[in-house]
Design a protein that fits this description.
The protein is α/β, with parallel strands linked by helices and about 375 residues long. The protein has helices at about 5-10, 25-35, 45-60, 75-85, 110-125, 140-155, 185-195, 205-220, 235-245, 255-260, 265-270, 305-310, 320-335, 360-370, and strands at about 15, 40-45, 65-70, 95-100, 130-135, 160-165, 200, 225, 250-255, 280-285, 285-290, 295, 315-320, 340-345. The protein is built from 14 helices and 14 strands. Helix 7 (about 185-195) packs across helix 8 (about 205-220) and helix 7 runs parallel beside helix 13.
C-alpha cells in the first residue's frame, strides 16, 4: 500500500516516532510531506518520548495522534501506555504503526527473533487492538478496519497497525546527508588502531557491523569486542558496568547520536560514577542512518557541554582525522571519564556485511577475555 494512501485513510495530522527500516517508506513520505515540523511531525528520542508527545497533542487538540516505531521499541511504550494512555487512567487514544521485525517464519537477525515472536502479544496485553498490514491489504479492507478503529479510539483506547515487510511503499527519492566528510567505518578503524587490545563495546546497527568487518580485514580476534546488536541506547551503560568492575582496564564505547539520545540519562549516571577508565566515543552524523538516514536532533545540540554538565572529566568534539587521532591517543593515557564526539558523514558501504559470529559466542569470548584483564 502506498504511504500516502495509508495516511489518507488514517486521517491524522500529527505523527511522532523513532524511525524503522521496516517503515522506511512511511518515514520518507513523512519527511517529504512535513520535514521536521514540530506541530505535525517529530522524530523523538525514544518510543516513550513519542507516546508522551502524542498524549500532549491529544490533550491540546482532542484529535488522534499517530506514533510509529519498530517493534523493538514496544518495551519503551509499555509504561506510558499502561499508566498514562490506558482507558482506566486518562483514556488518551493513539494510533500506533509498528514495524514487525523478526516475524515468525521470516528470516531476521537474532536480536529480532524473540521480539518478533511476542510483538502481537505485547500489544494485546496492553489492551491495544491490532491489525496486521501486509502487501495484500486492499484500500477497501483498510477503510473497513479504520472504521472499526475509530469507534475504539472514541472510547479512549488505542489501536495499532502492525506492518509486515514490504507492506508500505513510496516512490519518492528522499536523500539524507550532512556537510561532514569522515566516514564512520574509517573513524572506527582509527579507534581500533589506537585502542590496541583494550575491550570495545559498540552500539546497535552499522557501527557494530563495521567493527566486526574491520577485525576480519585486520585478521584480529573478535574477543576484544562486545557487539550490542540490540538494546539501542544502552551500549554506554554496558560499557560503564564493565569499566566499573575492571578499573585497571581501559574500556572503549563506540556509540551513535541516535543511541545517545534514546537514553541520555545514562550520561548523568556515568558522570556521577567516578569512573576513570571509560572512553565514550559518540559518532554523530545527525541521523538514524542504520534504518534509513532520517534525522536526529543531535546535529543541533552540544554533546560536549552536556557531557561536562553530567560530570565527565573531559569532553571534546572533532571533525577531522588529525584531531581524532590526537584525542584518541590522549584518551588512552588519561585517567578520567572521557567523551569524544566525532562529526561524521551519513552513509555506509553498500556491501557492508553482518557479524557471522553468533551472539552467544560473542558474549562468551568477550567475557573470557575480560576475565584475563585487570
Amino acid at each position: 500500500m502506498e504511504a500516502e494512501k495509508l495516511l489518507d485513510i488514517i486521517g491524522a495530522d500529527f505523527y511522532t516516532g523513532v524511525p524503522d527500516s521496516q517503515l522506511k517508506a512511511l518515514c520518507n513520505y513523512l519527511m517529504d510531506l512535513y520535514g521536521i515540523d514540530f506541530r505535525h511531525h517529530i522524530i523523538a528520542a525514544n518510543e516513550g518520548n513519542c507516546t508522551a508527545l502524542a498524549a500532549g497533542y491529544h490533550l491540546a487538540t482532542g484529535k488522534i495522534p499517530v506514533v510509529y516505531l519498530q517493534n523493538s521499541g514496544e518495551g519503551n511504550i509499555i509504561n506510558p501506555v499502561a499508566s498514562l494512555l490506558n482507558d482506566q487512567v486518562y483514556a488518551i487514544p493513539a494510533i500506533f504503526i509498528v514495524g514487525w521485525r523478526g516475524e515468525p517464519g521470516i528470516h531476521d537477525e537474532p536480536q529480532h527473533i524473540y521480539q518478533g515472536r511476542i510483538t502481537l502479544k505485547l500489544l494485546e496485553d496492553m489492551g491495544i487492538k491490532t491489525f496486521v498490514l501486509d502487501k495484500a491489504t486492499t484500500e477497501d479492507e483498510l477503510e473497513n478496519v479504520m472504521s472499526g478503529f475509530r469507534a475504539i479510539l472514541a472510547s479512549g483506547r488505542s489501536v495499532a497497525f502492525v506492518v509486515r515487510k514490504g507492506a508500505i511503499s513510496y516512490g519518492g527519492k528522499t536523500e539524507y546527508k550532512n556537510d561532514y566528510r569522515m566516514a564512520r567505518e574509517e573513524i572506527i578503524r582509527h579507534i581500533v588502531a589506537i585502542s590496541g587490545e583494550d575491550p570495545i563495546i559498540s552500539t546497535t546497527g552499522k557501527a557494530s557491523r563495521e567493527l566486526f568487518e574491520i577485525r576480519e580485514a585486520n585478521g584480529q580476534d573478535h574477543k576484544y569486542d562486545f557487539l550490542t546488536v540490540g538494546s539501542m541506547g544502552h551500549s554506554s551503560s554496558i560499557a560503564l558496568g564493565a569499566a566499573l568492575q575492571k578499573p585497571g582496564t581501559k574500556i572503549w564505547c563506540i556509540d551513535g547520536d541516535g543511541a545517545v539520545l534514546m537514553h541520555m540519562g545514562a550520561m548523568a549516571v556515568a558522570g556521577a560514577s567516578g569512573c576513570g577508565n571509560m572512553v565514550h566515543v559518540v559518532i554523530n552524523n545527525g541521523s538514524h542512518e542504520t534504518v534509513g538516514g532520517m534525522p536526529t536532533v543531535a546535529g543541533n545540540i552540544d554533546l560536549v557541554r552536556i557531557a561536562e554538565a553530567c560530570g565527565y572529566a573531559y569532553a571534546v568534539c572533532v571533525d577531522d582525522f588529525h584531531a581524532l587521532d590526537k584525542e584518541l591517543e590522549a584518551a588512552k593515557k588519561r585517567n578520567g571519564l572521557t567523551l569524544i564526539e566525532v562529526k561524521s558523514a551519513v552513509g555506509a558501504r553498500a556491501d557492508l556485511g553482518r557479524p557471522t559470529t553468533p551472539a552467544i559466542e560473542n558474549k562468551r569470548n568477550f567475557m573470557e577475555y575480560l576475565s584475563m584483564l585487570d
